[in-house]
Specification:
The complex is a heterodimer of chains A (284) and B (159). Chain A has 284 residues and is an alpha+beta fold. Chain A contains 6 helices and 17 strands. Chain A folds into 2 domains: 93 residues, no CATH class; 140 residues, no CATH class. In chain A, a hairpin with a 5-residue loop joins strand 5 and strand 6. The C terminus of chain A is likely disordered. With 159 residues, chain B is mostly helical. Chain B folds into 2 domains: 90 residues, Rna Polymerase Sigma Factor, Chain: A (Orthogonal Bundle), CATH 1.10.1740; 67 residues, Arc Repressor Mutant, subunit A. Chain B contains 9 helices and no strands. In chain B, helix 1 packs across helix 3, helix 7 packs across helix 9 and helix 8 crosses helix 9. Chain B starts with a helix and ends with a helix. Classes of the chains: A alpha+beta (284), B mainly alpha (159).
Chain lengths: 284, 159
């Protein structure tokens, strides 16, 4: 039996025995009927047009229910769409707008009354943001850059600025792979081994002082354009024309964590050459 | 989509879409949500599908996207409970549960690709279309996933 056959057998053993419950199956099958019977109590919310800096402002009239998880009609980009308003009760709320099988996830900032307040839907690049503020910010992401690709992670007790190397999800919910250049070895465009998975996402660890070659295009392993180097942290990043720091490809490296243990390693290494002392104290 | 047609598709593909979502989400509650949302979108989409297989691929793609969306959302990261994480699907056999648990240890990038390749029998080109990634990327992930899985299985003394 070859590897593929063994893998198929393994997957069959793991998944053949898994079935959805009959209750869940009935629920999903009957959704079509539920849709017809649903009586909606909706409230019109006027959403004003806002043009914020270089961001696209999207506006419309939304008819929304504040009932969590219920899809309702909204006017988005001038067309009718289904949207689900999710209020999680601690200041973080989302508005999910569906479009041809894909979805816009709208993060909602601040408190507002859906019946009274004017909401601004602002394109933030990787996500839309709804806010009563015509120029909203979302600090969790914006403090790092204006994309959602970077975050601080804890790894081996240290804090690192890491970049998401999973496929991106565009504003329609599609994944796309503009991150093909992410790689430690600069060869195949796919993240190699150093990974961290805090929330089922993969992140690259930042480069260390040992990393000497960078490239934005993943071809030659040499830095092509601008770069940023922090002497304090020994971190080096490529800087894209739009100002974001992304795509650090190393072509020659020692893992960053290795640096922290260099001292220890040297001590151990030198100890190998030191004359040993026997149990009775005589140098051999 | 008409109700009767929708029900036929739901009966035909719900299990497959759910399993693909489970492979990606790793827990029952999120997989059920992802599959349900995929079917909800199917019900409301105006896309003209070529055939049932086209619908199935579309559903899997939407479900996988749903899983990613759930895990990417701030709110989910903040509110997910241990109980929710521990919600398990129902297994016919105990060994299946252990195997599923083993496969769940693979990174997210690899799980969906492996599932589609080895369980749904899609080829590299088809998987690339479903997941909207390059064929090279699929091949690379397959190769690395196999290697990673082998490591996990050896570590857990399955091999």
């Amino acid at each position: 039996m070859n590897t593929d056959e063994r893998m198929k057998e393994l997957y069959a053993k793991a998944f053949d025995g898994i079935h959805v419950s009959s209750e869940y199956s009935r629920k999903v099958s009957n959704m079509a009927e539920t849709k017809k019977k649903k009586v909606r109590t909706t409230v019109k919310v006027l959403v004003a047009i806002a043009v914020v800096a270089a961001f696209l402002a999207v506006a419309g009239t939304a008819i929304a229910s504040t009932t969590r998880g219920v899809y309702e009609k909204v006017i988005f980009n001038g067309e009718e769409r289904n949207a689900r308003f999710c209020d999680f009760g601690y200041g973080v709320r989302e508005w999910e707008i569906m479009d041809n099988g894909n979805i816009y996830t709208v993060f909602i900032e601040g408190d507002f009354d859906t019946e009274k307040d004017t909401l601004y839907f602002v394109d933030k690049g990787d996500y839309f943001l709804a806010s009563t503020d015509p120029n909203p910010t979302l600090n969790l992401y914006d403090e790092i850059d204006n994309t959602s690709h970077a975050k601080f992670i804890e790894y081996n007790g240290e804090t690192w600025l890491a970049y998401n190397t999973d496929e991106n999800i565009d504003e329609l919910g599609n994944s796309y792979s503009d991150k093909d250049n992410f790689s430690e070895d600069g060869k195949d465009g796919v993240l190699d081994e150093i990974e961290y998975d805090p929330f089922l996402e993969t992140w690259t660890l930042p480069p260390s002082c040992e990393i000497i070659n960078f490239s934005e295009d993943g071809k030659d392993g040499v830095l092509d354009g601008k770069f940023v180097h922090d002497d304090t942290t020994c971190e080096t990043w490529t800087l894209l024309p739009n100002g974001t720091l992304v795509n650090t490809i190393k072509t020659s490296s020692v893992p960053a964590i290795y640096n922290d243990k260099m001292e220890e390693m040297w001590e151990w290494l030198w100890s190998l050459f030191e004359p040993s002392v026997s149990d009775n104290g005589v140098q051999e | 989509m008409e109700s009767d047609e929708y029900r036929r598709i739901a009966n035909k593909y719900l299990n497959a879409v759910y399993k693909a979502a489970l492979s990606c989400c790793r827990n029952n509650a999120n997989a059920e949500d992802a599959a349900q949302n995929a079917f909800l979108k199917l019900m409301r989409t105006n896309i003209k599908f070529a055939d049932d297989e086209h619908i199935k691929r579309w559903l899997i793609r939407v479900a996988v996207n749903e899983c990613k969306t759930v895990w990417r959302s701030f709110s989910h990261k903040k509110v997910i409970s241990i109980e929710e994480l521990e919600t398990e699907p129902s297994y016919d056999k105990e060994s299946a549960e252990e195997l599923f648990s083993m496969l769940s240890k693979l990174p997210q990038n690899y799980r969906a690709v492996l599932h589609l390749y080895y369980y749904e029998d899609y080829n590299v080109k088809e998987i690339a279309e479903i997941l909207n990634i390059s064929e090279t990327n699929v091949q690379t992930r397959l190769m690395r996933a196999r290697k990673k899985l082998e490591e996990i299985l050896k570590k857990e003394a399955w091999l």
